[in-house]
Amino acid sequence: MSVVAKKDSSGGQEEGLLVRWGMGLADWSEKWFPDAFVFALAAIVIVFLVGLLMGSTPMQMVNAFGNGFWVLIPFTMQMAMIIIGGYAVASSPPIYKVVQWLGSIPRTQRGAIAFVVFFSTFTSLISWGFSLIFSGLLVREIVRRLKGVDYRAIGAAAYLGLGSIWALGLSSSAALLMATKGSIPPNLLKISGVIPLTRTIFTWQSLVTAAILLLVSVLIAYFSAPSPARAKTAESYGISPEPLTVSLERREKPGEWLEYSPLLTILVALIGLVYLGVLVSQKGLLQVLDLNTYNLLFLMLGLLLHWRPRSFVRAVSASVPATAGVLLQFPFYAGIFGIITGTAISAKLAGFFVAISTQGTYPLVVSIYSAILGLFVPSGGSKWIIEAPYVLQAANTLHVNTGWVVQIYNAAEALPNLLNPFWMLPLLGLLKIRAREMVGYSVLQLLVHLPVVLFLMWLFARTLPYVPPAY
Fold first, then answer.
1. In what helix (H) or strand (E) does residue 6 lie, and over which residues does it extend?
2. With a cut of 70, which residues of the chain have pLDDT below it?
3. Which of 287, 305, 370, 412 is 20–30 Å from 59 (CA)?
């Protein structure tokens, strides 16, 4: 059976193999898929049991969990600000006009889904927070204009940046963390040293990987899109997407004058942007690009693009609900980090990886392990904090390039995002659907991406020499 649709003997349309797989997985996920928070709770129980099996006492595990629960608060705030900054920029009037123009381009249902995949993956290389909001708004504009688009498939298309290549781009939490000496936990810094971005996201191996995965994502989405006759449209879910309101209500009181004036936003945005410009000129872009400067850039751009304080504040207020999953679940992931690093688990896992790996097979071992752990800890940054101590320690022992280990982690940890709905939360609010209605099509992507990622991680690891830690 062909992967694309063709005519059957009666003259109707017979769906291709990928279409039938996608529809079947979507129907299954709508019925059986659980909430994202369940994955986090299950991870704590599993890690707790693993610690007991490795010889730690119950009280040691309890104390490690409690001691670690709040250690990621600064990082949690940074992740929340990525969402807020991305929303502020994507929902600004100039960017939204671009979204509306792009939404008028697709002419076919299948082409529209592939179109969204391209922009969701490409923009995720700039910012995963921006990608989610930009792609979600693009979906709304397309389904308003083009009837017969499967809402599940195009919703999953808007999410694919987070499930494929975002961590290979500029908002990679792991890469930015390892390039920022002040953000690396002291226990990890002793193992890894500082790993600059020139050894992670800006290697040619990483750029080629991102390009290949982008192309694969577009092709799978295109060939798995159902025909309009088989599609579940937005209307079938009782959803009628409306244009985003970007115009402000009229000013009514004299005291509101500054809220509607661009004077303060221009001045403050210029201060922030000049600061970043001076920083780059003094130290170089790659030396100053970290989570703090990245978030400052997006906030200043959002402030400038919204032009008026009232518009900017309204956008930030609209973005806050999308941060709820981060604020709730990150402390629980920090508890997992506390259990792993505060007991014998970390050292034993490092020894386990060394025992079962060689320099040649280690990339495959790390890829598979990172993907499995990501089912329970779906945060690229907080999961890296959990995983990095023993993964990098084993890499040093086996003399595997630690910069590429970061990229192996980045490529592999994105895969479980296609199954775990945690990062769908901001998008779900925009599209007004549930995760279980989108996961089926993202799981189909997972089945194709997994062998591609494993092969690329193994292949490119052979092209990079080992570099000792630099402190």
1. strand 6-7
2. 1-15, 18, 21-36, 245-249, 251-255, 286, 346, 350, 376-380, 382
3. 370
**How far is Cα 40 from Cα 315, in angstroms, rounded to an integer?**
29
Find, among 386, 368, 375, the residue nearest to 420 by Cα: 375
For tokens 């630690």, name the residue: 402
Q: Domain extents for the chain?
A: 83-244+321-461
Q: What's 7's DSSP letter?
A: E
Q: Which residues on adjacent β-strands are paired with residue 14? A: 6
Residues 411-467 pLDDT 10s: 998 898 888 777 777 787 778 887 778 888 888 899 999 999 999 999 999 999 998
Backbone angles phi, psi at 243, to 5 degrees: -60, 150
Q: Are 307 and 262 in contact (CB under 8 A)?
A: yes
Whether the predicted model's global pTM rises above the 0.90 cut:
no
Tokens at 55, concatenated: 């010889």
Distances (CA, A) of 342 to 61, 139, 189, 385: 8, 44, 16, 13
How far apart CA 245 and CA 369 sit, in angstroms, is 44
List the structure tokens of 114. 């592939």
Alpha-carbon distance 263 to 103, whole Å? Answer: 32
Q: ∠ at Cα 409 (404, 414), nearest 5°?
A: 135
> Count of CB atoms within 10 A of residue 99's CB?
23
- The residue whose two tokens read 């910012």 is 127
Strands 13-14 and 6-7: antiparallel
Nearest CA among 80, 51, 169 for reference residue 379: 80
